[in-house]
Sequence to fold (117 residues):
Amino acid sequence: MDKSRRGFLVTGAAIAGAGVLASSTASAQEKPMVAACGLACGVCPLMAAGKCKGCSTGKGASEEMLKMKPCPVLQCAAKKQIDYCGTGCKMFADCKKLVGKPYAESYLAMVKKRLEA
Fold:
C-alpha cells in the first residue's frame, strides 16, 4: 500500500477513534475502499446496486472497470498512476471531470483558494 493511501486511511480512522484498531487489524478486503475521486465506494449508488465492485485504482476491480465503460476520473487517475485525485493530482481543484460529479463547483473553488493561501 503506498503512503498516500495509507495516510488517507489512517487519517479517516483517527477521526473515528476506534477505527484505528479496526483498520490496522482488518484484512485488505475488509478495509474501506475509496475511489480515485474520493468517494467511499460503500456509499456509491453503483456499488449499492451491485453494478460495481469498487473502482479504487490499482485493484483488480479497477482494471475490470477500465475495460468496461469507465469513469473518466478513474481513467485519468490510472493514466497518471495516482490513487486519489485530491492527494495525487496538482490539477484537482481545476479538474473539469470532477465539477458537479461528484464535487460542487463551489467546493472545488474553496479547495483551490485554500491551497493557494
Helices lie at 3-16, 19-25, 45-48, 60-67, 72-80, 85-88, 105-116. Residues 33-116 form one domain. Confidence is low (pLDDT under 50) at residues 8-28.
